Here is the input.
Amino acid sequence: MAKTDSAQVAEIVAVMGNASVASRDLKIEQSPELSAKVVEKLNQVCAKTRKCC
Here is the structure.
């Protein structure tokens, strides 16, 4: 459950970040490594807050 939730949150954050970059016409490329780090941190938070899952 924690992995599913954090993946969804990470996707939302990525979409929001990409929209922000696009609206400002910035030249920033996506980083799979950074996305993986975001998912990892969100998994840690979810694991702490949802002991039952």
In short: The chain has a mean pLDDT of 72.
